[in-house]
Amino acid sequence: MEIPGIRKESIAGSGILCGAADRHSHIIWGVDDGCPDSAESLSALAFMESAGISDVWATPHINEYMPNTTEGLKKAFEALRAAYTGPVRLHLAAEYMLDTLLLERMEKRDLLVMEGNILLVEASTWNPPVDLHGILKEIMSAGYRPLIAHPERYRYMQEDDYASLVGCGALLQLNLPSLTGFYGETAREKASALLRKGMYSCAGSDCHRSATVAEQYNAAVLKRGTVRLLGQLLKKNLT
Asked: More exposed terminus of the chain, fewer Cβ within 10 Å: N or C?
């Protein structure tokens, strides 16, 4: 319920993005459903630069429908680095669906990870993976730390499920647009609750298009308390 007279701020206008790392984006052009061309990628990076973001992780999809290869993504990432001349530091990882292709790549040690062997993974928004905790256990037994992308968007997960994930050693990544209502009211409420409980370890834009992320980040919808908690989250050390 909206309360009249409560001052609200935008993600970009609040200043909390200054020096922050974006841990989830699809800014490499032409490799998945993200930026379609170099102009779009550079436009997205220009906006992130203007918002004060210091580091951006490119995390293209890898799944059975988009079976990107490690070498192919490395080449595409180098093309992005060559095209971008600004101050934002660029890093490469990937967003892996919790499917059989991930298990195959993991067995071959053929994965693109963040520092500390942190592996960004996602699940279906609508249907839970078969034996989720078993898969996470396999990931951790192989020496990786699972970072679960945008858990607030998983409609089948509730408070106990999130607590169970964190309890087993998984990390949770917030999609910042969830807090603006971009994915609907349920995702917004879950994101707000998880943020208040301190259950997130990092955040990202999940940027696919520059205009979309600019609209999300410039919308004045965040209460002061949310801005304060986001500021604390964005200062966290992921490892």
From this structure: N
